[in-house]
Description:
In chain A, strands 11-21-20-13-14-15-16-12 form an eight-stranded mixed sheet. In chain A, strands 23-30-29-28-27-26-25-24 form an eight-stranded parallel sheet. Chain A contains 30 helices and 30 strands. The relative contact order of chain A is 0.07. Chain A is elongated. By secondary structure, chain A is an alpha/beta fold. Chains A and B meet through helix 21, helix 23, helix 24, helix 26 and helix 27 of A and helix 21, helix 23, helix 24, helix 26 and helix 27 of B.
Amino acid sequence: xxxxxxxxxxxxxxxxxxxxxxxxxxxxxxxxxxxxxxxxxxxxxxxxxxxxxxxxxxxxxxxxxxxxxxxxxxxxxxxxxxxxxxxxxxxxxxxxxxxxxxxxxxxxxxxxxxxxxxxxxxxxxxxxxxxxxxxxxxxxxxxxxxxxxxxxxxxxxxxxxxxxxxxxxxxxxxxxxxxxxxxxxxxxxxxxxxxxxxxxxxxxxxxxxxxxxxxxxxxxxxxxxxxxxxxxxxxxxxxxxxxxxxxxxxxxxxxxxxxxxxxxxxxxxxxxxxxxxxxxxxxxxxxxxxxxxxxxxxxxxxxxxxxxxxxxxxxxxxxxxxxxxxxxxxxxxxxxxxxxxxxxxxxxxxxxxxxxxxxxxxxxxxxxxxxxxxxxxxxxxxxxxxxxxxxxxxxxxxxxxxxxxxxxxxxxxxxxxxxxxxxxxxxxxxxxxxxxxxxxxxxxxxxxxxxxxxxxxxxxxxxxxxxxxxxxxxxxxxxxxxxxxxxxxxxxxxxxxxxxxxxxxxxxxxxxxxxxxxxxxxxxxxxxxxxxxxxxxxxxxxxxxxxxxxxxxxxxxxxxxxxxxxxxxxxxxxxxxxxxxxxxxxxxxxxxxxxxxxxxxxxxxxxxxxxxxxxxxxxxxxxxxxxxxxxxxxxxxxxxxxxxxxxxxxxxxxxxxxxxxxxxxxxxxxxxxxxxxxxxxxxxxxxxxxxxxxxxxxxxxxxxxxxxxxxxxxxxxxxxxxxxxxxxxxxxxxxxxxxxxxxxxxxxxxxxxxxxxxxxxx
Amino acid sequence: xxxxxxxxxxxxxxxxxxxxxxxxxxxxxxxxxxxxxxxxxxxxxxxxxxxxxxxxxxxxxxxxxxxxxxxxxxxxxxxxxxxxxxxxxxxxxxxxxxxxxxxxxxxxxxxxxxxxxxxxxxxxxxxxxxxxxxxxxxxxxxxxxxxxxxxxxxxxxxxxxxxxxxxxxxxxxxxxxxxxxxxxxxxxxxxxxxxxxxxxxxxxxxxxxxxxxxxxxxxxxxxxxxxxxxxxxxxxxxxxxxxxxxxxxxxxxxxxxxxxxxxxxxxxxxxxxxxxxxxxxxxxxxxxxxxxxxxxxxxxxxxxxxxxxxxxxxxxxxxxxxxxxxxxxxxxxxxxxxxxxxxxxxxxxxxxxxxxxxxxxxxxxxxxxxxxxxxxxxxxxxxxxxxxxxxxxxxxxxxxxxxxxxxxxxxxxxxxxxxxxxxxxxxxxxxxxxxxxxxxxxxxxxxxxxxxxxxxxxxxxxxxxxxxxxxxxxxxxxxxxxxxxxxxxxxxxxxxxxxxxxxxxxxxxxxxxxxxxxxxxxxxxxxxxxxxxxxxxxxxxxxxxxxxxxxxxxxxxxxxxxxxxxxxxxxxxxxxxxxxxxxxxxxxxxxxxxxxxxxxxxxxxxxxxxxxxxxxxxxxxxxxxxxxxxxxxxxxxxxxxxxxxxxxxxxxxxxxxxxxxxxxxxxxxxxxxxxxxxxxxxxxxxxxxxxxxxxxxxxxxxxxxxxxxxxxxxxxxxxxxxxxxxxxxxxxxxxxxxxxxxxxxxxxxxxxxxxxxxxxxx
Lengths: 762, 762
């Protein structure tokens, strides 16, 4: 295409633009909307566009004292001239594909060139403004990360518009908070005063863009003229409301709405908040730069945050200000608190991207990260002290405050219902308690895909029973300790089955990460010794003997069931008794799926299956329709994936534990990874954190291979995913492609999974 | 076949036996040799055989008062009658396929039956002896392990022989110690007195059986008659000598000799071993983590071990677990015994490097090194008491037991030379020191396949430098610490390259299992702090921060090179300087292969390759023929195997680290496995210990897949195996089937690999 074609009217003063296909492709940013509004017949101020390549050539030609291209340019400028023939004053605007603070603001009231030479002479107002507009891209498009492509640069465009008469009005096409259609004030601008026919413009733009748009129009004696528009980012809530509204107005189909919502942003809406903010006084106020409330242990470094998270602890990262080195720590923290910075600070930007509550710019806060101490006013805090922050209003509170969990209503509910209609993969949840199960149900969970039975012991008195079992010296002592656990477990299972009322519940057999359950500090050891009636010295010896070099790869999972069959016996009996109790109070059958963790050979599965089936057969449920029982293997080791054919022939289902599978496939301990993951990210060694988004090329192939081999051996095999990746949109798209039957994620991620799987199955 | 055919003469009094194919198949145990000797025309005492099935039917027939089968049996017995027609006295012998103490001893001097009925009546001497002979199998053939097949049981046979006249002589066909051909005394029997024509019999049996045989003959007036023979187990040394002798006598080809030697028994010859393990019972069992037996005085500290060694005393270092501080003591000790730890524990690694027998992870052992006392079960031991350990099977014995020292005589050398002629896969060794390299060369190693560079720091003064590097807080401190290490390393590499004189040397980049190098006890920490000029408290903090939850999956291997590029820089420079120094003193080029450990992604390899190649290019060697440099990846993670195509396209070779690959594929920490591996073995969950013999179905498929993908991407790719499995005969057969280019094992395993790979390639 000749460069002459890269200078053209998008809204000529007279009639409509007749653009070639390649010109249409050049319409980035505002140019696109100006063209489309004009094309639709709405009064639009005359506008022309020129690419950087064309502009550069105009300048080169000028140096060669050539004028061929200039003739085209001048002809273009004449497209801005109305029928009355009087050259208007001009406006020069950038038209970047994405809005950025570094761009040149519109330069308005520029006199039309007097002579053709003036139209390209950078010493004259029009050409100077165009030159500066292009220069302002130079910074913004490449940005700080050094990325940017020269080809794209040549296609950048600048707009030249006629100045419109009358009042200029700024407004939004939809309310930034409620999403309601109709002119709404743009942040920092007065409420617009607009004639009625703006509604046609708004309807037009909303339908074409499918997003909230910031608009610029002129109003002259009740006559409205369109100047420009660009999409703006609003809260996820407003976007959802707008999406539902578009469906109701028949602008979109429900399918359009579902496919255009960003699942990652949906996740951010599902934040907790303070239960009763009115009852407590903040000890400090800063800026709420990323919404949601968070409570946790104070920590001062990214590494500590990662370590705490790996142990399942919530923490608040407290720093003077954050920088790129803190990103891993911010992701690991539950919330972020900074002494400096504001809404557009690094902390604010990253916190919103990652969906972490963040309070920034707390002036009374000072942090000494070397001494590991911080002060808020005259209070001193050390690592281990607790704070609560509210990223919605910037408040900082002492201690751990009760938080209220988000609820799904109105627009979200509608959208998720539409999602469910086109979704074929079931969404379950990973929970152990009735309370979490109810949260997950309110979010639309269709079953429990992972109930980690050992987590039922996270209370002081149960912990004593569990420790007694773990520390037993022989089978007899262990059997006695176990007897005390059956009752707890029976009650727990019964309540959980009842809460799920006929939906499937996958109980993973005991898989204690021993080191998490054992006493560590001197104080804990003394306490445990006395509660177990042991001498402290004897307990220490026993703890020493149990200690593992690599607990992640140690005596856990199915290995426990095989070495201590009495644990398996106890658990199966408790599950059966729980199912019987629940079945007595409901019409639907109890759907129990028992899953064996950390399997690496088919013989392990055969061993456990034989015993589990015997207990099931002896439970009296054998021929009853009060229970539907199935048996499965958790796939979290590479060898299990390789031998999936053998394993599948002995089970009803398999479910991938993607966290452990990622650990063993990569040979990375998630607990220890922070020491090198930051350097890996900085040096671009990993494309993505494999613990956040599934590693398709490695772990993903492992899963795909296992599903293929498993289904070949057992065509009726049910396949699930129950690792953390089951709540990550990118990973969910991958799993959907593998044809799994269900995924299971944490309760707050259930809506994300419902939406993403609907998008993936479309 | 009718049961009548299951009673037949194998050496008739008159002429030769004419057996059907199915009768030939029945010839188990002695029957086989009696038949073959008779068949060869050597005078043999008349002998008939009967199967248990036939005998049982004779009894059933008797109960039915039928006589059809009995007629056959009596006819059979008549085959024992000489031309003179006088029925001889009879002998009844068992003829089991393998000799066993529970079998009935030969019952001799039995009168021939007077009437047909007497031949089957268990109240009469002949039938009673036959009945008892069969009954003695009942115990022996099924044995304590409950295994045994009914089909085989029916085919068991009993022999009835005529009593021979003259003197009965017992002897061996070859000397039990030297392997020399000719009549040799059988253990517990007087030296045989035999006429010259026994040599024909011995030659005949030796050629037919290809094993040492225990023989029974009668000598009557200088006339020899063959009665029976069975193979006996002699020392591996005697077997090797006999094998070579058979080749020299042209009874065997060299190929026969190589293929008939049991490689596992060869391995046992290369370490000191218990002279008579069957005569003693262990007082405890642990893990045999470094092979060979050792006896000595119990000692609890490195200093005492050094003191005892200085006085020429053998001692066994007994500790809970070893750490860097114990290295000198381990070198001084004759053997090492620990309460904790497994195959990859510090004790195991150092013991194998230094060639010391070591038993680790003895759960019934507890050591109080302050009180200088240890307990094994309820026995108490003090310094000065004596123990014997066997690092091959993990046994611990009371007192000093007699040991047999290894001897590599002429026969081994000859056999291994023959092996090399038919072997196509190279055998290298895993060593870091010149001393070990020389041992390996004397065993026929063809290069070094794994030099673990971090092991070059196992001496007190180097350990200080290494700890300084590990504990550095920033890059500058680390660079300073590293500078001090370059000289050590350069000297080490130069010496190692020189020792190998042009053979390839694979240097694995630094892969420290950090926890093995760091101080642990209060005393060590104080010492380290002072040697580093740090406050003890600061050092403890740093140690806390470095501590890993799962060090096996932690900050190691290539992850260190990427996070601390200065370490990579130092190592590459030292390797290049070492190669230059070695190259100046030899004619052959120095063959250096740099290998990157613990790779999981191709980007890691690309990152290290770029830097390593730059250092190589800048070393001045670029176009010289003094060095042949190649670059490779160690494959020890499942993900590396899956992505072998990407990785192979960037390297000259890959080498499988089968230990770590087994750990990650199975999700088993070798150190922690003992707690459940015993139960797994007892319950038959694993067919074999996957750390001893490669798991073909899992880890093996991983390796096969990686080789296939790697060679598809890079047809010139060289493939090696450098894990412990490279010294295990069963695993070596598997690797040979995969078409690897070389294997690399510990020095003492080199002969085993040479022999096994020759057998595999035949």
